Amino acid sequence: MLTFVLVLGLGVAGVAAWLHGRDALPIAERCAALLDGTSWYLDPEQAANAALLGGIAEQRGLPARALTIAIATTLQESKLRNIDYGDRDSLGLFQQRPSQGWGTPEQVQDPVHATNAFYDALVRVDGYLELPITEAAQAVQRSAFPDAYGQHEARARAWASALSGWSPGSLTCTLPEAGTADPEAFAGLVARDLGVQPTIEGTTAVLDASALPDGEAEAGRLGWAVAQWAVGTAGQTQAVEVRTADQVWTRSTAGWTASTDPLPTGRVEVSFAAP
Which residue of 77, 113, 178, 198 sits 20 to 30 Å from the alpha carbon of 216, by its own alpha carbon? Predict the structure, then answer.
């Protein structure tokens, strides 16, 4: 009987230790865009790059369809990563080739240059908004595997809908505890991606979506576009809270919840941990 009790006790202790070990496991860092009941995941690096594509699309006043094509293209070409290698001389998010006139190696690895170069070519494609993803992307990329872009359409559409503000509260990120933030670096990233200048108030950055193209007419949608850009880049910026309209995202909840203090339409507040 004593032996049985000892074994049982060790078994319970082992289970308890295993459960404790499970609690101590690091969280799965990932971001999701929800569309039509399905969550489409990206890791924080990919999410930040998708947010860049979305921000530049808004700067240029491009429709969500253009962003869908851009995200699908980069998912196929580089898995949405700004890589420094590729087939022959292909480089960067879009795997653009300097030898084919996309710019110098340094330029095609600059995500802003690469994204604008892609959009410059895309908007010159006749009827690109009505074309299937595969045809629109192929008209720009001239890939050896043109049908491959189509496999990314659903994920790209979900992220484009979120980052263009058409799906409010659909972009979330699960992230570890925030590290030290640099509000000035955040301001630089906002200017790079969105082309607007935030106001820094202590540990909070305030953004006005009406400064974007068509901002006065579409402040509600653009407020959500900016807010979900801020969530998508939170892994990079160390943001701990994003607020817009009557909703707030926090790292602790990893999702959007109702706010007791609604903001004016188009206003977005991004907060960081106190130093």
Answer: 113
